[in-house]
Each structure stands twice: as structure tokens, then as C-alpha cells.
Amino acid sequence: MALLAAAICIAAPPTYAGVAMEMVTKNAAGRETERTKIFAQSQRIRMDGGNAVSGNSMIFLGDEFLVLDHKDKTYIVMDEAMLSEVSSQISKAMKQMEKQLAGLPPEQRAMAEQMMKGRMAGMMGAQDAPPGPRVEEIGNGQWNAYSCKNYAVYLGATKSQEVCAAALSDLDGADEMLAAFRGMAAFVAKLTESLPFGSDTLLNPGELMDQIEGFPVHTVDYKNGTVAHETSLESLTEQPIDEQLFAVPDGYRQQDPFSGR
Hints:
Layout: H1 2-11, E1 15-27, E2 32-41, E3 44-49, E4 56-60, E5 65-69, E6 74-78, H2 80-102, H3 106-115, H4 119-123, E7 134-143, E8 146-155, E9 158-166, H5 174-192, E10 215-223, E11 226-242, E12 253-254
Parallel strand pairs: 6-12
Antiparallel strand pairs: 1-2, 1-11, 2-3, 3-4, 4-5, 5-6, 7-8, 8-9, 9-10, 10-11
């Protein structure tokens, strides 16, 4: 029996203390549309959407992202090398476009540039980057068993979200989860700095963290002034985390994100 127990211990994957969280998103009618499980341990994060058969997972390992497609059993790696290649391809496309525009008569060139306004113009530096989110505290509130501070988030003059944030001391494991998300946000900011259109045109998921005190337990998203959907904290627990959660499963093949281009 002792030998059998030892063999089981050797064969079992190692587990380490971490945090597990589950978030639920509902539409304006109150119907559940998404359920996300998030695991954090030692500054690493795994986010699972859908299920282990047909859903997707994203794993952050500190210096790279792994994006798993469970249906096709494939994955891609997102790191500085990949973003450098994206930046190079965009720069080449912009130079080619500018060369083509330079060969047009002035009237046609002006018309073409006018048609290219918007996102493409912003990528070429011809448009100012939109302002980042602005957060205003709007009082205290309650969500389920949590007392929290309420915040309104604005993009320009438009309110995009309302966030109910509970104190970290009221949630076991919230500080570790928040620290992991901050590390991921810093890495995302570093990656997007290399893009030709800059990081200001992309919404970093961690951009609000330094403007909100506490841990979000309920978030309402608005579109055109009405509720689009809301996301709430279903559970947050400290528990052992299987090391295999942060690894590519056996049998998955790596995909080249630039294949077929």
C-alpha cells in the first residue's frame, strides 16, 4: 500500500496555492450569455470561455500569451516576436499605400485620403488618438453580499460602464487575482507600444485598475445610453491550482497566425 501511495503521488500533477474565479455575463434581458472561469497563480493567469471541448482558453505566462482552441486542438503564441512581425507587416502596408497615393493626381489623392479617414487614418498618424477612459466615483452601493464603491466610466462624454468594486479585504484571494491582472496589463501595454498606431488606440483590460479602489464584483456595460450587458462575480476562492492548467495540453498543435496571408 505504501508503494502504491508513493506511485500515485509521483504520477499526480503538482498543485500550488492560487485563486479561482468565475464570472457570469448576462444580456439586457437577464439571460446568461457567457461564463468565464479564471485561475491565477504566481502572476500567471488562465481564462476559460465555453468548455474544454468547444471553447477557448487564454493563458498568460508572464512573457507570452497562449490562445487555445479546444475544438480544433490548436494554439497560437502571442509574444513580442509576434507583435514585432505584425508591426512590420503594417508598416510595409502603410508605405506601399503612401507610395500608391503619391502617384495619384492631387484631386484623386485628396479624395482617396478623405475616404481613408477613420481607423486607417489613425494608424497612419493622421488622426489624434481617442482619450483614455475617465473614471468618476458615484457613491456607495451593494451587490449581493458585498458593500462596494460605485464608479462611472466614461469614454469622452459617453458613459460606457458602471462598476461596483468591493474592498479587497472582503474577498479571499482578490489581492492575488488583482496583482496577476496588473502584471498582464503591464505586459499588454509593453506589447502594444511596438505597433505603428500606438497603444493609445487599443483598450488595455487593465487600464482601469489604477483608477478604481477595490475589486469589481458587478459591471454594467452601456451602448448608446442603454444597458447592453452586465458581468458579475459568481465566486472567488483560494485553492490549489493544477500546474497543467498553465500548459498546452498534449496533442495540441501550434498554428502560425500569419499562415494563409
